[in-house]
Amino acid sequence: MIKLGVNIDHVATVRQARRTDEPDPVWAAVEAELGGADGITFHLREDRRHINDRDAELLKQTVAAKLNMEMSINTQIVRIAVKLKPDQCTLVPERREEVTTEGGLDVVRLRRRIGPAVKKLKRAGIITSAFIEPEERQVVGSARCGFDAVELWTGGYAHAKTEAAADEELIKLMEAMDVGHDHGLIVHAGHGLTYRNVQALAAISEFAEFNIGHSIVSRAVLVGMRTAVREMKELLRIAAQPDLALLEAEELMPPGKTQ
User: Fold this and answer.
1) What's the pTM value of the predicted model, to 2 decimals?
2) Which is the catalytic residue, given 43, 151, 188, 209?
3) Which of 32, 104, 132, 180 is 20 to 30 A from 187, comparing alpha carbons?
4) What's the CATH number where 73 sits?
5) Does residue 201 form part of some domain?
6) 118 is a domain residue
């Protein structure tokens, strides 16, 4: 079954809205693990708009599951990652004006800057992953840069307006996944995945892991983090067993929502 990485950035976003000490993303990570999360993901941005250095240090000390640090290729951030030594570092594009990470890292264009960063991280014993768009050249470029894994951007699928458009994006993801496997890469996926759209992707894919943040944190506001994570894990379990009744999946949907 596909593993679930829970991104706790938006818990810190709520905290920073009032510049106070709650809700604590470190507590949220504990609750996510108790709910069955296979990994915890956080993004230490250059501007520290949500997760800060204190959070990163405490997450390293307390998270028992896989700890995945999203990060830019900024030299200072690479230095912090090498010192912190999370289990995995996922290199992502970063723009100050964006609300959240949009699109993938262009490893082909930035290969000369990315290569040295990947080497430094791997020398520190850190698994490296590239957050990229589902394009063959980006997947191949990631393998050439020395990454251990790639995380395919699922925004095109998640934001598709029609069923036909969603199907087209699914094909792109499947093809990119196959290219990744052919080049010896572990293939993850994430961005925009929700309780309403995750099963269609999970049912037809062989991804190792989904990283999901906003949808789980939003659900957690209403039902608690443990329950929100358990519900997402259950949807992934059902997707892996297509013979289960559709009703079982619908019972896990948030009120008023249907597949």
Assistant:
1) 0.90
2) 43
3) 32
4) 3.20.20.70
5) yes
6) yes
In a domain, 248, yes or no: no
pLDDT in tens, 149-162: 999 999 999 999 99
Look up 33 and say whether it is catalytic.
no
pLDDT tens, position by position, 203-223:
988 999 999 999 999 999 999
Which of 10, 50, 188, 191 is flagged as catalytic? 191
Q: Does 98 participate in catalysis according to the annotation?
A: no
231 found inside a domain: yes
Q: What percent of the chain has pLDDT over 70?
A: 90
Task: Specify the number of domains making up the chain.
Answer: 1
Q: Where are the alpha helices (DSSP H) in the chain?
A: 9-18, 25-34, 53-62, 75-84, 111-123, 136-144, 155-158, 163-182, 198-203, 214-223, 225-239, 246-250
Q: Residue 195: which domain range?
A: 3-242
What pLDDT is recorded for position 102? 63
Out of 10, 31, 50, 70, the active site residue is 70
Residues 209, 190: Cα–Cα separation, whole Å: 8
